[in-house]
Structures are given as structure tokens and as C-alpha cells.
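Q: Trace C-alpha cell order:
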Amino acid sequence: MLNYPDANGTYLVGFPDFPEANSVGDTTDEALAEAVACLRTAVEMYMEDRRAVPLPSAAAAGEHTVALPALETAKVLLWNEMMARKLRKADLARLLGVHQPQVDRLFDLHHSSKLDFVEQAASALGRRLTVELT
């Protein structure tokens, strides 16, 4: 949610799904760019705490939205599936027949994981990753 300039002329960004996350910018574009970094940090905090990451709620009409890049979104969905099944990274590593550091990198939002490895992990959990161009 982008709030228009405050008394100091800065744009404030808040996230209905992440009440602990807020960012600012001097312009709308800067505020929205900072919001993506803020969103990534909030997601990383949830992962560090071994909590499921909230999925985005519907935006109100005219409301600005930001999203993580597609690969990061796929990682979050995979993470949430693991949390729903009460699995640990070590459990996923065993299912995939790989070493734990490979799974650690899989959930590192700054690591450019290969999409086929994300698909393989989803398959190991009985799920299928689909991609849509809109």
C-alpha cells in the first residue's frame, strides 16, 4: 500500500500481508523500487523463523502493488509447501538425494537457482511448478 507524500514529502509503503515491513522513497518510483527490497527482506525473515510466508491478498482498486521476481516467487511457494508438510531442509535434501547446502541455496532469495532444480524439488513434494505469462 503506497501512501502519498507525508509532511516531509516522502512516500510511505506498507504491506497488508507483512505488517512488520515498511519502506519509503522520495518519489513513487523510488518508493516502489524500495518496496521490492523490503518485501524480499520480510520474506527472508519469515524463512529464517521457519514460518510460512503470507501470500498476497487482493489489491484494492487503484492500489499500487509490487511482487518478487518469478524465481523468488517459486522459491516462496516451494517453501510454503515444505512448511505445510512440516518438513525441514534436511528432509528435502534427503528426498532429492542432494547435500544440504544445495537446499540451503535453493531457499536463498539472492541465489540464482536453476529453475529445473526448483521443479525437481516441487516434484519431490508431489507438486508441479507451472509458469504463466500474463
Summary: Residues 2-48 form one domain. The chain has two domains: 2-48, 70-124. Residues 44 and 93 are 20 Å apart (CA to CA).
